[in-house]
TrEMBL record:
Pfam families: PGM_PMM_I, PGM_PMM_II, PGM_PMM_III, PGM_PMM_IV. Its cofactor is Mg(2+). This is Phosphomannomutase/phosphoglucomutase. Keywords: Isomerase, Magnesium, Metal-binding, Phosphoprotein. Residues 6-130, 153-251, 259-365 form the Alpha-D-phosphohexomutase alpha/beta/alpha domain. It comes from Nonomuraea ferruginea. Belongs to the phosphohexose mutase family. Coiled coil: none annotated. Residues 370-442 form the Alpha-D-phosphohexomutase C-terminal domain. The keyword Phosphoprotein applies.
Amino acid sequence: MGDLARIFKAYDVRGLVPDEFDEPVAEAVGAAFVEVTGARSMVLAHDMRESSPVLADAFVRGARSRGADVVHAGLGSTDLLYYASGSLGLPGVMFTASHNPAQYNGMKMCRAGAVPIGGDTGLTEIRDRAAELVGVTATPTGSLIEKDLLPGYADHLRTLVDLSGIRRLKVVVDAGNGMGGHTVPEVLAGLPIDLTPLYFELDGSFPNHDANPLEAANLVDLQRAVVAEGADIGLAFDGDADRCWVVDERGESVSPSAITALVAVRELAKHPGATVIHNLITSRGVPEIVREHGGDPVRTRVGHSFIKAEMARTGAVFGGEHSAHYYFRDFWFADSGMLAALHVLAALGEQPDPLSRVVSAYSRYHASGEINSTVADQDAAVRRVRSAFGGRGEADELDGLTVSGDGWWFNLRASNTEPLLRLNAEAADETTMTAVRDEVLDLLREVQQ
């Protein structure tokens, strides 16, 4: 199956252009998408990468060749595509490689209502059928409608979070030359916000820094600008603007776990007793705070497909991940970095305290952050760690190995794509967290030798 087997991942499509992902492949996937989903109509958007318009047009040709009508939204963020799929009731495709380097591109696919398509929900079938269709061309019979969905997207988000009464805020936004530069001005227009934009020029070569706010080096410019401008808050978006990272007025990063807890409290105020989803490596403070505010916390594996499936199963009002993905029932159970940002702006602007004080109420523990170790024999390493911690805490294997002791816990799980073990540790005090973290890392190093 050649390149198709390499570029079709568990939840999306991603590959090097043109070596692995080119126009004939995109056209074949377009035809296969329509055949597998049975779509009579669909919606499509793309990011600012140089290859995105060309690949998107090829996909459209394939989809139309199978008789599907295509609504082409043009430039958009991934959550704009989810808005389009939800509001129009159509299956959709977003052309993006998110935070990956410039030479990559890819696709995120969903059914009507922004229901994700993954390996076990149609993506494998699309891959297999597309492999049969590469190089096969047919006359397009479906129609093509170009539609600007950005104003509707912005209006919809503003109906979900009321910012009309907030105090005036100074906000620095680093779009990383990604799609936040396209969506943020529209969403924040008319609000009591003084906006300082960083890298809003759409440029898929990412000339200033990678559009990946999970890497600390990519936050440096935002942190400096927040302090220099005397801003109240800084926001950083990834390439397709579905993730948002928050920086406080001191230029300090705010943990996504604290943002998860903050947004959860706001959603529980509107929906008392509702369920809130959190993955197993978010802070233990999240389920504690959810319970304290009358909610029902549900713990899941890491990964958006698990979060979205559990949200749909439980009817959860909100879900959060350590990776700064935030999911909303009011947004078709899909993730939206912009919607999370609006919640934080509202929470900040509705009261007089600085953001550092606001989020301190949601930051209870000391966390290691995610630490990656290259380990050839991952199973042997995990067995060694499990044995070393035997009898010192409760262990479970929902996703990798989690061991929870008195005031501390850690999770050790394998990467799906690399010979890496990912460690997250947390404790009530920094000394304990450091001790647990270092003990696990020492055990991993012994296996490596």
